[in-house]
């Protein structure tokens, strides 16, 4: 189905692309010409955190390469079943920062809305891979969270998160944004999303019009970890959003075997710059159960950051940071 037009090209409906998924590890391997035994650690065909890869993203993975950095982010590995001390289900103790279902309040002046449990892709290192979405999203969806925001005039910024807020339709987002816009003490709106990285078509004309609002200057924080995740289509759509007044930032996670080398990180910053997106944070992995094989030591992370600073202008070097439970802000290991 062809439903949209962007930059003169007809593009398929993002919702159809979102539904066009690979959900089976063996099928994913077969599509890429790989045998499961070629994968380091093998595959996990029965994970509690199901495999979910849009075919749109699959097209960017190199067939026949068991070490492809994009594949590594999405293929359920047998190593996810390793029990590693220090790794748990709620690595950031978010359960302690949930005043009402659907809302997290960790930092001064900011609150995060869990608007959905759905994601366009399941990232194997996700710190919310064990998050109890049902208890946050059942019943009067969003109502308690919005009531809490109305009752807390000290909150100035609201962050739409999840799950991934851009898996919601534009109509649902518009309804939520209308409710937030009516809360007078909110003066910043931020959206965290990885959906455009796996399905660039999500940044469609309708969304651009929605975010181009006089009520507030919207910040969209993307989540790209590798330069190959930013193709010309995504870059063009990001630049168009920038022209519409949206501030664009990127948060990456430092991941072993994906982006833990200076050349890849520098190329990521270059691609982001081409797209009009500022590299904002490079996060150290959160210690979530199932993801320990992605960890990079602080020693190596700091050395990589030094190497980036030697290659790039300061504004293209992301802050190396870690989130630690109970702290009032992220811990910046190197700025
Ligand atoms: S898109 Fe974000 S929330 Fe969803 S699995 Fe990936 S990292 Fe987690």
Automatic annotation (TrEMBL):
It comes from the Bacteria. Coiled coil: none annotated. Its cofactor is pyridoxal 5'-phosphate; [4Fe-4S] cluster. It comes from Alloalcanivorax gelatiniphagus. This is L-lysine 2,3-aminomutase. Pfam families: Radical_SAM. The keyword Iron-sulfur applies. InterPro entries: Aldolase_TIM, EpmB, Lys_aminomutase/Glu_NH3_mut, rSAM, rSAM_sf. Residues 105-327 form the Radical SAM core domain. PANTHER family: L-LYSINE 2,3-AMINOMUTASE, LYSINE 2,3-AMINOMUTASE-RELATED. It catalyses: L-lysine = D-beta-lysine. Keywords: 4Fe-4S, Iron, Iron-sulfur, Isomerase, Metal-binding, Pyridoxal phosphate, S-adenosyl-L-methionine. The keyword 4Fe-4S applies. Belongs to the radical SAM superfamily. KamA family.
């Amino acid at each position: 189905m062809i439903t949209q037009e962007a930059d003169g090209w007809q593009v398929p409906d993002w919702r159809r692309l979102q539904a066009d998924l690979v959900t089976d590890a063996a099928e994913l391997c077969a599509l890429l010409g790989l045998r499961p035994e070629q994968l380091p650690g093998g595959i996990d065909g029965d994970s509690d955190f199901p495999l979910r890869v849009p075919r749109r993203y699959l097209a960017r993975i190199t067939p026949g390469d068991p070490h492809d950095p994009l594949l590594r982010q999405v293929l359920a590995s047998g190593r996810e079943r390793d029990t590693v001390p220090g790794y748990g289900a709620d690595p950031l103790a978010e359960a302690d920062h949930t005043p009402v279902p659907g809302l997290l309040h960790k930092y001064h002046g900011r609150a995060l809305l869990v608007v959905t449990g759905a994601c366009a892709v399941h990232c194997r290192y996700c710190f919310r891979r064990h998050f109890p979405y049902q208890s946050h999203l059942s019943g009067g969806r969003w109502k308690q969270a919005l009531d809490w925001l109305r009752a807390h005039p000290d909150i100035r910024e609201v962050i739409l998160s999840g799950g991934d807020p851009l898996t919601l339709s534009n109509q649902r987002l518009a309804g939520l944004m209308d409710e937030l816009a009516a809360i007078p003490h909110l003066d910043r709106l931020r959206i965290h999303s990885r959906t455009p990285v796996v399905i660039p078509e999500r940044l469609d004309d309708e969304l651009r019009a929605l975010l181009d609002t006089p009520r507030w200057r919207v910040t969209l924080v993307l989540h790209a970890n590798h330069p190959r995740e930013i193709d010309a289509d995504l870059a063009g759509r990001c630049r168009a959003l920038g022209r519409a007044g949206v501030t664009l930032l990127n948060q990456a996670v430092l991941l072993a075997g994906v982006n833990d080398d200076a050349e890849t990180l520098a190329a990521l910053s270059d691609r982001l710059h081409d797209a009009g997106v500022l590299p904002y944070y490079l996060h150290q992995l959160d210690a979530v159960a199932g993801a320990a094989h992605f960890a990079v030591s602080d020693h190596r992370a700091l050395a990589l950051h030094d190497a980036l600073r030697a290659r790039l202008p300061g504004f293209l070097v992301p802050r190396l940071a870690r989130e630690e439970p109970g702290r009032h802000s992220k811990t910046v290991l190197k700025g």
